[in-house]
């Protein structure tokens, strides 16, 4: 049975507390989103992610702070995330911390894709909500990535910073907000990216900072495994391949042999299993590209060339041809129609 995507109420409560501390009307939010005291005070309860993300966006609007999620994330302490925060901050290296964040993210929320990869001297940790219909979701995304940066600073080096940070959403309309976000993260920010992620130096990530307390780690990992939010595992090869495409698009070449290696099968076996499900890597790659392109053309994108690069095309012409093949019109026409609709709305 498919589970409803959800988030631990402890995270919801932490965000709500910060909202109130910044002058927000907590009673209004509790009424609007059905957060009765008995829900907020029960650590075993989870809240639907759709409700949580909408609440987060609402809070930012109510306190008139587009960087609400990023600001509270940058002030996070390891203890605020409970056992996950403690485990990450006491890991032997940044690489181990990110691997554990990937492994145990579902103890905080479900229906979320996080992936850690390494190539050409860089490490990439990516994050995205599986349901593309949950939009906008800027506050959740900026909160998640600034929180992780803050956890790594608390656990390893107070002046630590990633090489770059990527966000799938557009840049803030206010130039001051667009400039503030890189300051909070300590790194250049790329908006309108194919996915959300932290790009960091691999050598630094592998550096050992401490010897771990193995007894403590085992206790925490066992507890987190029991705490994991129920979720429906990816049952089809289509789902598994789409998850890997989403984590790597725009960062590296999406190739059958690499995907097969990540999934622990041979390229021929993966090709055959996809064919058994009536699909192929080419079909899935185009499907994901079309979904990302539609969203960015609808909400606004800096240029067709930048969107083409994000989607892994060699140039804008290749993307233009692909988009025309998908829906029968060039991307510029779709973007112009979206702008006209926003102007009239």
Compressed to H and E, one letter per element, the order equals: EHHHEHHHHEEHEHEEHHHHHHHHH
- Count of strand segments: 7
Total domain units:
2
Q: What is the terminal separation in angstroms?
A: 40 Å
In order across it, which strands form the biggest sheet? 3-4-7-5-6
In terms of DSSP E residues, the strand content is 5-15%
Judged by helices, strands and strand pairing, the structural class is alpha+beta
C-alpha Rg (nearest Å): 20 Å
Report on this structure.
The chain has helices spanning 9-21, 26-32, 37-40, 49-62, 68-74, 82-89, 94-104, 138-155, 175-185, 202-206, 214-227, 237-248, 256-263, 267-276, 281-299, 304-310, 316-327, 331-344; strands spanning 6-8, 46-48, 112-119, 122-129, 164-166, 189-190, 196-201. It is of the alpha+beta class and 345 residues long. The protein folds into two domains: 64-206, no CATH class; 237-344, Arc Repressor Mutant, subunit A (Orthogonal Bundle), CATH 1.10.10.60. Helix 12 packs across helix 15 (281-299). It starts with 5 loop residues before the first strand and ends with a helix. The relative contact order is 0.10. The mean pLDDT is 90.
Give short descriptive properties of this protein.
about 350 residues; alpha+beta; Arc Repressor Mutant, subunit A; two-stranded antiparallel sheet; 7 strands
Question: How are the SSEs ordered, and which strands pair?
Answer:
Elements: E1 6-8, H1 9-21, H2 26-32, H3 37-40, E2 46-48, H4 49-62, H5 68-74, H6 82-89, H7 94-104, E3 112-119, E4 122-129, H8 138-155, E5 164-166, H9 175-185, E6 189-190, E7 196-201, H10 202-206, H11 214-227, H12 237-248, H13 256-263, H14 267-276, H15 281-299, H16 304-310, H17 316-327, H18 331-344
Parallel strand pairs: 5-6
Antiparallel strand pairs: 1-2, 3-4, 4-7, 5-7
């Amino acid at each position: 049975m498919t589970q409803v995507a959800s988030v631990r109420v402890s995270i919801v409560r932490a965000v709500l507390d910060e909202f109130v501390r910044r002058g927000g009307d907590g009673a209004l939010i509790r009424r609007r989103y059905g957060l009765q005291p008995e829900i907020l005070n029960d650590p075993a309860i989870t809240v639907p992610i759709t409700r949580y993300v909408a609440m987060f966006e609402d809070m930012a609007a109510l306190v008139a702070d587009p960087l609400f999620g990023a600001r509270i994330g940058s002030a996070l302490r390891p203890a605020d995330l409970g056992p996950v925060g403690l485990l990450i901050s006491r890991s032997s290296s940044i690489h181990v911390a990110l691997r554990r964040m990937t492994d145990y993210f579902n103890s905080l929320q479900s229906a979320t894709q996080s992936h850690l990869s390494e190539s050409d001297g860089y490490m990439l940790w990516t994050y995205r909500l599986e349901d593309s219909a949950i939009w906008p979701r800027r506050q959740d995304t900026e909160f998640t990535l600034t929180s992780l940066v803050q956890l790594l600073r608390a656990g390893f080096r107070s002046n630590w910073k990633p090489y770059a940070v990527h966000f799938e959403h557009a840049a803030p309309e206010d130039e001051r907000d667009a400039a503030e976000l890189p300051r909070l993260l300590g790194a250049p920010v790329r908006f309108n990216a194919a996915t959300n992620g932290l790009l960091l130096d691999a050598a630094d990530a592998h550096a050992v900072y401490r010897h771990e307390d193995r007894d403590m780690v085992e206790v925490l990992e066992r507890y987190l495994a029991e705490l994991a939010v129920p979720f429906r595992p990816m049952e089809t090869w289509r789902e598994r391949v789409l998850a890997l495409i989403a984590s790597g698009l725009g960062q590296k070449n999406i190739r059958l042999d690499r995907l097969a290696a990540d999934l622990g099968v041979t390229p021929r076996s993966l090709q055959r299993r996809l064919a058994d499900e009536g699909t192929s890597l080419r079909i899935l790659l185009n499907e994901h590209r079309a979904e990302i392109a539609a969203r960015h053309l609808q909400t606004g994108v800096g240029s067709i060339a930048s969107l083409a690069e994000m989607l892994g095309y060699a140039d804008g012409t290749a993307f233009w041809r692909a988009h025309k093949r998908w829906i029968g019109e060039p991307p510029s026409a779709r973007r112009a129609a979206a702008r006209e609709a926003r102007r009239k709305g």
